[in-house]
Amino acid sequence: PALGMYDEYVKTPETVKRGAIVRITKEAILQDETGQILDQARRIGERIGLEKEVAITDYVVGAVSSCVHEKRVGDSAEGNYNLFYAAPGSRYVNQQANALADWTDVDAAEDLFLGIQMPGTGQPPILTQRVILVPPQLRSTANRIVSATETRSGTNNVVVAGNPLAGMNLQVVVSPLVYSRLVASGQPAATAAGIWFYGDLSRAFRYYRNWDLQVEEDRSGALAFSHDVVAAFKASERGTPVVVEPRLWSRQMPS
Fold first, then answer.
1. What is the per-residue pLDDT across 11-21, written as a single tens digit (0 to 9) for each?
2. How many angstroms separate the Cα of 49 from the Cα of each of 25, 31, 92, 152, 213?
3. Contacts for 128 with CB less than 8 Å, ≥ 6 apart
């Protein structure tokens, strides 16, 4: 049968330019006792790269409110929504209380997606990759769960078995920014240390850019004559994170 098309889209926020210039004068070089001032100035790109990573992390952990801009099947108009919802009956439920301790908690995170319906099909989302994103405080726990070769369950009649998660190709990603950005967004430190995320990271988010991060060096600028600037280093990039499909990403709370 011939099929028609329906109006559905995700809206991209306006891109943001991030950049900075570091100018080095003759006096700065003369008074530098470390001999590293030029090398450090060249690392301005790392500062701009960190700002970009912070912006991406804020989206991924849900620190940006109303960051989902979409119009899907059944919507009469586009709307702005938060990344995570926990209350039954919400647009989608992708947050739950589920502290990370063993493989059963990964199972619970996987089962959460079974209650989500994808627009247009009404079926649960299909994860093509599975990422466990954790703060440093959960690094050892997550790696132990994924790499375990044996599991034990039960108290009286203990059942010994292989790792039920084997074959799922789980990828553990650890980032200190996950913790720091959660705290910056208002989460208590003790709570932020136990929050973890699960889902198809690469399909849930994109980073749209006008140009990539570029670092340039100039040694013949106009300020060389008037201000004795012997070198200048500039770094810039322009882009924005975009939530493409929030139904492929979940937040697991410690309580």
1. 999 999 999 99
2. 25, 29, 32, 44, 7
3. 200, 203
